[in-house]
Amino acid sequence: MDRFIEITDFHDPRLDIYARLTEAQLRSSHGIENSLFIAESPHVIERALEAGCVPESLLMLPKMLDGRERGQEILARCGEVPVYVAEEDCLKQLTGFPLTRGVLCAMRRPPLPEAEELLRHSERVVVLEDVMNPTNLGAIFRSAAAMGMDAILLTPASTDPLYRRCIRVSMGTVFQIPWAWIGEELTDWPEKGMALLRRHGFRTAAMALRDESVSIDDAALAAEKKLAVILGTEGDGLADGTIADCDYTVKIPMAHGVDSLNVAAAGAVAFWQLCRR
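Above: the chain's sequence. Below: its structure in C-alpha coordinate form.
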Protein backbone atom coordinates (compact mmCIF):
# COMPACT_ATOMS: atom_id res chain seq x y z
CA MET A 1 0.00 0.00 0.00
CA ASP A 2 1.27 3.45 -0.91
CA ARG A 3 2.24 5.16 2.37
CA PHE A 4 1.42 8.61 0.92
CA ILE A 5 -2.29 9.40 1.29
CA GLU A 6 -3.80 12.60 -0.07
CA ILE A 7 -6.29 14.37 2.20
CA THR A 8 -8.60 16.92 0.56
CA ASP A 9 -11.37 17.23 3.14
CA PHE A 10 -10.71 18.67 6.61
CA HIS A 11 -13.48 16.41 7.96
CA ASP A 12 -11.77 13.24 6.72
CA PRO A 13 -11.79 10.87 9.75
CA ARG A 14 -8.12 10.11 9.16
CA LEU A 15 -7.44 13.65 10.40
CA ASP A 16 -9.26 13.03 13.69
CA ILE A 17 -6.07 12.29 15.56
CA TYR A 18 -4.65 15.68 14.53
CA ALA A 19 -7.77 17.83 14.38
CA ARG A 20 -10.50 16.54 16.64
CA LEU A 21 -9.20 14.38 19.48
CA THR A 22 -8.59 16.26 22.72
CA GLU A 23 -5.35 15.87 24.65
CA ALA A 24 -7.12 13.53 27.07
CA GLN A 25 -8.49 11.44 24.19
CA LEU A 26 -5.03 11.17 22.65
CA ARG A 27 -3.73 9.78 25.93
CA SER A 28 -6.47 7.16 26.11
CA SER A 29 -7.25 6.36 22.46
CA HIS A 30 -4.60 3.63 22.08
CA GLY A 31 -4.42 2.45 25.69
CA ILE A 32 -1.96 3.55 28.35
CA GLU A 33 1.09 1.85 26.84
CA ASN A 34 0.52 3.29 23.37
CA SER A 35 -1.08 6.64 24.18
CA LEU A 36 -0.25 9.43 21.79
CA PHE A 37 0.92 13.01 21.51
CA ILE A 38 1.37 15.37 18.55
CA ALA A 39 4.75 16.87 17.66
CA GLU A 40 4.94 19.88 15.33
CA SER A 41 7.84 20.94 13.05
CA PRO A 42 10.86 18.98 11.83
CA HIS A 43 13.00 20.29 14.69
CA VAL A 44 10.65 19.06 17.41
CA ILE A 45 9.98 15.75 15.64
CA GLU A 46 13.71 15.09 15.33
CA ARG A 47 14.20 15.70 19.07
CA ALA A 48 11.35 13.33 19.86
CA LEU A 49 12.82 10.64 17.58
CA GLU A 50 16.25 11.07 19.18
CA ALA A 51 14.59 10.49 22.57
CA GLY A 52 13.21 7.17 21.32
CA CYS A 53 9.59 8.19 20.66
CA VAL A 54 7.87 5.95 18.11
CA PRO A 55 5.96 7.61 15.21
CA GLU A 56 2.44 6.48 14.28
CA SER A 57 1.76 8.73 11.27
CA LEU A 58 2.78 12.01 9.63
CA LEU A 59 0.74 14.91 8.30
CA MET A 60 2.60 17.05 5.79
CA LEU A 61 2.26 19.83 3.26
CA PRO A 62 3.10 18.77 -0.31
CA LYS A 63 6.14 21.06 -0.36
CA MET A 64 7.79 18.84 2.27
CA LEU A 65 7.90 16.00 -0.29
CA ASP A 66 9.71 17.88 -3.05
CA GLY A 67 13.22 17.07 -1.90
CA ARG A 68 13.54 19.63 0.86
CA GLU A 69 16.23 18.25 3.12
CA ARG A 70 14.48 18.22 6.49
CA GLY A 71 11.23 16.80 5.14
CA GLN A 72 13.10 13.94 3.51
CA GLU A 73 15.09 13.30 6.68
CA ILE A 74 11.90 13.03 8.72
CA LEU A 75 10.39 10.62 6.19
CA ALA A 76 13.50 8.46 6.23
CA ARG A 77 13.59 8.29 10.02
CA CYS A 78 9.91 7.45 10.41
CA GLY A 79 10.01 4.17 8.50
CA GLU A 80 6.84 3.07 6.72
CA VAL A 81 4.22 4.89 8.81
CA PRO A 82 1.32 6.46 6.86
CA VAL A 83 2.00 9.95 5.52
CA TYR A 84 -1.11 12.09 5.08
CA VAL A 85 -0.58 14.93 2.61
CA ALA A 86 -2.88 17.96 2.63
CA GLU A 87 -2.79 21.42 1.10
CA GLU A 88 -2.23 24.52 3.21
CA ASP A 89 -5.87 25.64 3.17
CA CYS A 90 -6.93 22.34 4.69
CA LEU A 91 -4.24 22.34 7.37
CA LYS A 92 -4.90 25.97 8.27
CA GLN A 93 -8.33 24.86 9.48
CA LEU A 94 -6.57 22.40 11.77
CA THR A 95 -4.04 24.76 13.35
CA GLY A 96 -5.82 28.10 13.00
CA PHE A 97 -2.73 29.56 11.34
CA PRO A 98 -0.44 28.72 8.38
CA LEU A 99 1.60 25.61 9.14
CA THR A 100 4.86 27.25 8.09
CA ARG A 101 7.05 24.35 9.21
CA GLY A 102 5.03 21.95 7.15
CA VAL A 103 4.79 18.75 9.19
CA LEU A 104 3.10 17.18 12.23
CA CYS A 105 3.71 13.73 13.65
CA ALA A 106 1.51 11.56 15.87
CA MET A 107 3.82 9.65 18.20
CA ARG A 108 3.56 7.18 21.05
CA ARG A 109 4.31 8.53 24.49
CA PRO A 110 7.64 7.31 25.87
CA PRO A 111 7.77 5.50 29.23
CA LEU A 112 8.56 7.91 32.07
CA PRO A 113 11.14 7.37 34.81
CA GLU A 114 10.15 7.43 38.46
CA ALA A 115 10.93 10.61 40.44
CA GLU A 116 13.10 8.55 42.79
CA GLU A 117 15.26 7.37 39.90
CA LEU A 118 15.84 10.95 38.70
CA LEU A 119 16.71 12.21 42.16
CA ARG A 120 19.32 9.47 42.58
CA HIS A 121 21.33 10.89 39.69
CA SER A 122 20.72 14.65 40.07
CA GLU A 123 22.12 17.62 41.98
CA ARG A 124 19.93 20.43 40.66
CA VAL A 125 16.24 19.77 40.06
CA VAL A 126 13.17 21.88 39.34
CA VAL A 127 9.91 21.14 41.16
CA LEU A 128 6.78 22.64 39.59
CA GLU A 129 3.80 22.98 41.93
CA ASP A 130 0.51 23.02 40.00
CA VAL A 131 1.87 24.91 36.97
CA MET A 132 -1.09 24.67 34.60
CA ASN A 133 -0.40 27.07 31.75
CA PRO A 134 1.16 25.05 28.88
CA THR A 135 2.95 28.11 27.48
CA ASN A 136 4.66 28.78 30.80
CA LEU A 137 5.41 25.09 31.26
CA GLY A 138 7.03 24.84 27.82
CA ALA A 139 9.14 27.94 28.50
CA ILE A 140 10.27 26.53 31.87
CA PHE A 141 11.36 23.27 30.22
CA ARG A 142 13.31 25.17 27.58
CA SER A 143 15.20 27.35 30.07
CA ALA A 144 15.80 24.47 32.52
CA ALA A 145 17.36 22.42 29.73
CA ALA A 146 19.38 25.37 28.41
CA MET A 147 20.74 26.35 31.83
CA GLY A 148 21.81 22.82 32.70
CA MET A 149 19.30 21.72 35.33
CA ASP A 150 19.35 17.96 35.78
CA ALA A 151 15.64 17.11 35.93
CA ILE A 152 12.10 18.45 36.36
CA LEU A 153 9.51 17.04 38.75
CA LEU A 154 5.84 18.01 38.46
CA THR A 155 3.08 17.77 41.03
CA PRO A 156 0.01 15.81 39.88
CA ALA A 157 -2.06 19.00 39.36
CA SER A 158 0.41 20.39 36.82
CA THR A 159 -0.24 20.40 33.08
CA ASP A 160 1.02 17.47 31.03
CA PRO A 161 4.36 18.42 29.39
CA LEU A 162 3.34 16.45 26.27
CA TYR A 163 0.40 18.73 25.50
CA ARG A 164 0.86 19.97 21.96
CA ARG A 165 1.31 23.64 22.86
CA CYS A 166 3.76 22.85 25.64
CA ILE A 167 5.90 20.75 23.30
CA ARG A 168 5.85 23.50 20.69
CA VAL A 169 6.81 26.28 23.13
CA SER A 170 9.56 24.13 24.64
CA MET A 171 11.06 23.63 21.16
CA GLY A 172 11.18 19.91 21.90
CA THR A 173 13.26 20.23 25.08
CA VAL A 174 10.58 18.17 26.87
CA PHE A 175 12.41 15.27 25.18
CA GLN A 176 15.87 16.43 26.26
CA ILE A 177 15.65 17.09 30.00
CA PRO A 178 14.43 14.16 32.15
CA TRP A 179 11.12 14.68 33.94
CA ALA A 180 8.70 12.75 36.11
CA TRP A 181 5.56 13.17 38.19
CA ILE A 182 6.25 13.60 41.90
CA GLY A 183 3.46 11.36 43.13
CA GLU A 184 0.26 10.16 41.47
CA GLU A 185 -2.44 11.65 43.71
CA LEU A 186 -3.07 15.32 44.52
CA THR A 187 -2.48 14.49 48.18
CA ASP A 188 1.07 13.28 47.46
CA TRP A 189 2.25 16.89 47.47
CA PRO A 190 3.70 18.49 49.47
CA GLU A 191 4.17 16.06 52.36
CA LYS A 192 5.22 12.91 50.49
CA GLY A 193 7.06 14.86 47.80
CA MET A 194 9.06 16.87 50.31
CA ALA A 195 9.93 13.68 52.19
CA LEU A 196 11.19 12.14 48.94
CA LEU A 197 13.43 15.15 48.25
CA ARG A 198 14.87 15.07 51.75
CA ARG A 199 15.45 11.31 51.57
CA HIS A 200 17.72 11.92 48.59
CA GLY A 201 19.65 14.69 50.34
CA PHE A 202 18.06 17.70 48.66
CA ARG A 203 17.69 21.09 50.28
CA THR A 204 14.65 22.98 49.03
CA ALA A 205 14.40 26.56 47.78
CA ALA A 206 10.93 28.10 47.43
CA MET A 207 10.80 30.93 44.87
CA ALA A 208 8.40 33.30 46.61
CA LEU A 209 7.83 36.95 47.52
CA ARG A 210 8.35 37.02 51.26
CA ASP A 211 10.07 39.51 53.54
CA GLU A 212 11.82 36.65 55.33
CA SER A 213 13.83 35.51 52.32
CA VAL A 214 17.36 35.32 50.96
CA SER A 215 18.49 36.88 47.72
CA ILE A 216 18.95 34.52 44.82
CA ASP A 217 22.68 35.31 44.80
CA ASP A 218 23.11 34.21 48.43
CA ALA A 219 26.35 32.23 48.77
CA ALA A 220 24.74 29.54 50.91
CA LEU A 221 22.36 28.61 48.09
CA ALA A 222 25.13 28.21 45.56
CA ALA A 223 27.11 26.09 48.01
CA GLU A 224 24.38 23.47 48.46
CA LYS A 225 25.43 20.14 46.95
CA LYS A 226 21.85 19.15 46.13
CA LEU A 227 19.18 21.78 45.60
CA ALA A 228 15.54 21.62 44.48
CA VAL A 229 14.21 24.91 43.06
CA ILE A 230 10.45 25.00 43.65
CA LEU A 231 8.18 27.19 41.49
CA GLY A 232 4.45 27.73 41.97
CA THR A 233 1.41 28.18 39.82
CA GLU A 234 0.75 31.35 37.84
CA GLY A 235 -0.75 34.19 39.83
CA ASP A 236 -1.01 32.62 43.28
CA GLY A 237 2.52 31.26 43.42
CA LEU A 238 3.50 28.59 45.93
CA ALA A 239 1.14 27.46 48.66
CA ASP A 240 1.92 28.80 52.14
CA GLY A 241 2.41 25.25 53.43
CA THR A 242 4.99 24.52 50.74
CA ILE A 243 6.95 27.67 51.55
CA ALA A 244 6.90 26.82 55.25
CA ASP A 245 8.28 23.33 54.52
CA CYS A 246 11.23 24.61 52.45
CA ASP A 247 14.75 25.19 53.73
CA TYR A 248 15.04 28.52 51.92
CA THR A 249 12.64 31.16 50.70
CA VAL A 250 14.30 32.88 47.76
CA LYS A 251 13.58 36.25 46.18
CA ILE A 252 14.88 37.81 42.96
CA PRO A 253 15.84 41.47 43.59
CA MET A 254 13.99 43.77 41.17
CA ALA A 255 14.07 47.42 40.15
CA HIS A 256 11.64 50.14 38.99
CA GLY A 257 8.98 49.08 41.48
CA VAL A 258 8.31 45.78 39.71
CA ASP A 259 7.05 43.32 42.30
CA SER A 260 7.21 39.98 40.47
CA LEU A 261 8.10 38.07 37.32
CA ASN A 262 6.13 35.60 35.27
CA VAL A 263 6.86 32.08 36.55
CA ALA A 264 8.74 31.13 33.38
CA ALA A 265 10.91 34.26 33.55
CA ALA A 266 11.57 33.76 37.26
CA GLY A 267 12.54 30.16 36.56
CA ALA A 268 15.06 31.16 33.90
CA VAL A 269 16.75 33.62 36.28
CA ALA A 270 16.82 31.02 39.07
CA PHE A 271 18.22 28.26 36.88
CA TRP A 272 21.01 30.50 35.58
CA GLN A 273 22.01 31.64 39.05
CA LEU A 274 21.68 28.36 40.93
CA CYS A 275 22.76 25.69 38.46
CA ARG A 276 26.18 24.14 39.20
CA ARG A 277 27.97 24.73 35.90
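The mean pLDDT is 89.
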